[in-house]
């Protein structure tokens, strides 16, 4: 058994009766979004072989079994990143666990720097599409049929049905949300102003260091994917000061009441329309 299978087995052994319809991966500062759901139980990432101890401040390192709207979810509070240098296995683990558990939908969340004009700290952006500028692809390696075909299509990674569910949830909560293109870079250094300028010209509305690998893997594996970004800062050179991680997590936490309403509404919409 490889580490991903062992991880899926560890979760299945802990909650043998769990039948999650979907999952969430909560990024920097997003931990509190789990409160959009009713948490039934939690397990530490330390108990999941491929995940291990959380590596980044602002990431709880806990998996919650939760009920949200009419469905059961697995909520990953904290993610592993490519810049940690541990390869793709820890990043792929939540997707492998969800797939093994039979989940059909995945909401990916993150913090990012705003590039597009008018994007302000605290704004929420629905991910319409992404640009992978990490310099690596999580599907490189021997072909594993669990991740779909050898050359998976990426025309519609963020499915229109779930994007509509996010828009409908925002409307129902009386919130305005943005929609845009998320650019993933490897990090861990933030960008230079010239890089940000270039990324904007390439079509990026926001830039961050995550999400794209999980989105690609889940989409390839046939899981419906949605992405939600909290713009936590103006990307380098577009704001007044220097960038730091404490600001990123604080801004995401300050946006939390909006985030919770949106997440709860999203699952209501996604589950109401998604069954059958
Ligand atoms: N750049 C990259 N990643 C980020 C940023 C940023 O400006 N803000 C939050 N995550």
Question: What do these coordinates show?
Answer:
The chain has 276 residues and is α/β, with parallel strands linked by helices. 31% of the residues lie in helices and 24% in strands. The chain has seven helices and nine strands. It has helices at 3-14, 89-101, 160-172, 193-202, 212-220, 245-254, 256-274; strands spanning 22-26, 38-44, 62-68, 71-77, 105-114, 124-132, 178-184, 206-208, 224-234. Strands 5-8-7-6-9 form a five-stranded mixed β-barrel, surrounded by four helices. Strand 6, helix 3 and strand 7 form a beta-alpha-beta unit. Helix 3 (160-172) crosses helix 7. The longest helix is centred in the C-terminal third of the chain and has 19 residues, at 256-274. The radius of gyration is 17 Å and the shape is globular. The relative contact order is 0.21. The mean pLDDT is 92. Residues 111-113, 190-191, 207-209, 232-233, 235, 243, 248 line the site of hypoxanthine. The site of hypoxanthine (HPA) has 13 residues, from strand 5, strand 8 and strand 9.
Per DSSP, the total helix count is: 7
Unreliably modeled segments: none
Averaged pLDDT, please? 92
Question: Would you tell me the structural class of the helices and strands?
Answer: alpha/beta
Number of strands: 9
Strand ordering within the main sheet? 5-8-7-6-9
Considering DSSP H and I runs of 4 or more, what fraction of the residues is helical?
A: 25-40%
Rg of Cα set: 17 Å
What can be said about the biggest beta sheet?
5 strands, mixed, barrel
Ordered list of secondary-structure elements with their pairings:
Layout: H1 3-14, E1 22-26, E2 38-44, E3 62-68, E4 71-77, H2 89-101, E5 105-114, E6 124-132, H3 160-172, E7 178-184, H4 193-202, E8 206-208, H5 212-220, E9 224-234, H6 245-254, H7 256-274
Parallel strand pairs: 1-4, 1-5, 5-9, 6-7, 7-8
Antiparallel strand pairs: 2-3, 3-4, 5-8, 6-9
Helix pairs in contact: 1-2, 2-5, 3-7
This protein binds hypoxanthine.
Hypoxanthine (HPA) binds at residues 111-113, 190-191, 207-209, 232-233, 235, 243, 248.
């Amino acid at each position: 058994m490889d580490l991903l299978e062992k991880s899926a087995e560890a979760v299945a052994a802990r909650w043998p009766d769990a039948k999650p319809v979907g999952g969430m991966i909560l990024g920097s500062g997003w931990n509190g979004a789990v409160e959009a759901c009713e948490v039934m139980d939690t397990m530490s990432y330390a108990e999941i072989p491929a995940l291990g101890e959380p590596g980044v401040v602002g990431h709880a390192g806990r998996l919650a079994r939760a009920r949200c709207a009419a469905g059961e979810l697995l909520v990953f509070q904290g993610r592993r990143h490519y810049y940690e240098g541990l390869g793709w296995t820890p990043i792929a683990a939540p997707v492998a666990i969800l797939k093994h558990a039979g989940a059909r939908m995945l909401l990916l969340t993150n913090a990012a720097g705003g590039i597009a004009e008018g994007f302000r700290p605290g704004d929420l952006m629905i991910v319409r599409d992404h640009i992978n500028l990490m310099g690596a692809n999580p599907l490189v390696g021997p072909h594993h049929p669990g991740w779909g075909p050898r050359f998976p299509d990426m025309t519609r990674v963020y499915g229109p049905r779930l994007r509509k569910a996010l828009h409908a949830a925002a409307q129902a909560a009386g919130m305005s949300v943005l929609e845009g293109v998320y650019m993933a870079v490897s990090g861990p250094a933030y960008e230079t102003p010239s890089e940000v300028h270039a990324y904007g010209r390439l079509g990026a509305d926001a830039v961050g260091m995550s999400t794209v690998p999980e989105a690609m893997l889940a989409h390839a594996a046939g899981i419906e994917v949605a992405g939600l970004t909290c713009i936590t800062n103006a990307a380098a050179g577009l704001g007044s000061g220097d960038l730091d991680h404490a600001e990123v997590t604080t801004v995401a936490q300050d946006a939390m009441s909006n985030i919770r309403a949106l997440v709860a509404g999203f699952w209501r919409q996604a589950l109401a329309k998604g069954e059958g």
